[in-house]
Amino acid sequence: MAEIVGGIATSHVPAIYGAIAKGLQRDPYWKPFFDGIPPLRAWLAETRPEAVIVFYNDHGLNFFLDNLPTFAIGAAQEYLNDDEGWGMPAPAPFRGAPALSWRLIEHLVEHEFDIATCQNMKVDHAFVLPLQLLWPDGDAPPAVPISINTVQHPLPSVGRCLKLGRAIGAGLASWQGAERIAVIASGGLSHQLDGERAGFMNQAFDLEFLDELVRAPDVLTRLTIDEVVEKSGTQGVELLSWVAMRGVLGGAVQQRLLNYHIPISNTAGCQLLLTR
Ligand code: DHB
Ligand code: FE
């Protein structure tokens, strides 16, 4: 049986590549974001996960509006990024964990999650950024990428994403491998990049969301997707990844780190570390 060592959630803002390239980690604008990273790396160095499950949302690199699965799981040996126009340097390929992917796929389909399975899947900045921030030497553990549609409506509900995470948690409990597994969620918190409300952020909602996510995630299922968009912005719905991560962790959790700062680029930047 696999051991779930904990969950990390973080915003994914491509502008932080520019900040890293310019050595601005201690600059007053960027420092509040980068301050969240060393405690996460210290925790990872202590717990040494051997595989990671990464919930994220593809922004159009692998899936576009013509072909957009609600939930998609990678089952590849390795995952490549490609130029998305953010000026990010091309990273080395990321290792996959296909045996673990297939176990989770089998478990999910058995439990009525009709997910897309991808033996070939490009991973965009939402997958790449957290792994690069957490493993800057390029030694991220083998990964299972799970993409949640946050782009084209209808989006999966908060409750569905929580159930997806819980189903994955149950699948890990029946996995024969003995790996220590960390769960990563990428996205959010509140932000809106386009339309009349471009620049919208909502600290009051984010803090309430975080509190409920940690303490009582089922309470969040009261929110419809339209309410999530209204309160957190059209891209704030990326918080669905955080809900799925929380589902994997199961019952009570401990909050080991919360680092929240507005704004980082156009986003309410946040890192969260939860353990069981
Ligand atoms: C920004 C935030 C995102 O979630 C994203 O995918 C791209 C850019 C931003 O705040 O700049
Ligand atoms: Fe995004």
Would you mind describing this structure in some detail?
- The chain has one domain (3-275): LigB-like (Protocatechuate 4,5-dioxygenase, Chain B, 3-Layer(aba) Sandwich).
- The protein contains nine helices and ten strands.
- It has helices at residues 15-21, 31-34, 37-47, 98-110, 125-134, 158-173, 203-215, 225-232, 240-249; strands at residues 3-10, 51-56, 71-74, 78-79, 94-95, 116-118, 143-148, 180-186, 254-264, 267-275.
- The chain binds 3,4-dihydroxybenzoic acid and fe (iii) ion (FE).
- Residues 12-15, 59, 191, 193, 235, 238, 265-267 line the site of 3,4-dihydroxybenzoic acid.
Query: In CATH terms, what is the architecture?
Result: 3-Layer(aba) Sandwich
Strands of the widest sheet, in order across it, are 6-3-7-2-8-1-10-9
- SSE run: EHHHEEEEHEHEHEHHHEE
CATH topology: Protocatechuate 4,5-dioxygenase, Chain B
Low-pLDDT residue spans: none
- Beta-strand percentage range: 15-25%
What level of helicity do the residues show?
A: 25-40%
Cα distance spanning the termini? 16 Å
Q: How many domain regions?
A: 1
How large is the radius of gyration?
Answer: 17 Å
- Determine the structural class based on helices, strands and strand pairing: alpha/beta
Q: Which overall shape is indicated by the principal axes computed on the Cα atoms?
A: globular
Number of strands: 10
Let me know the average pLDDT. 96
CATH superfamily: LigB-like
User: Which ligands are bound?
Assistant: 3,4-dihydroxybenzoic acid, fe (iii) ion
Q: What is the top-level CATH class?
A: Alpha Beta
| Main β-sheet description | 8 strands, mixed
Number of helices: 9
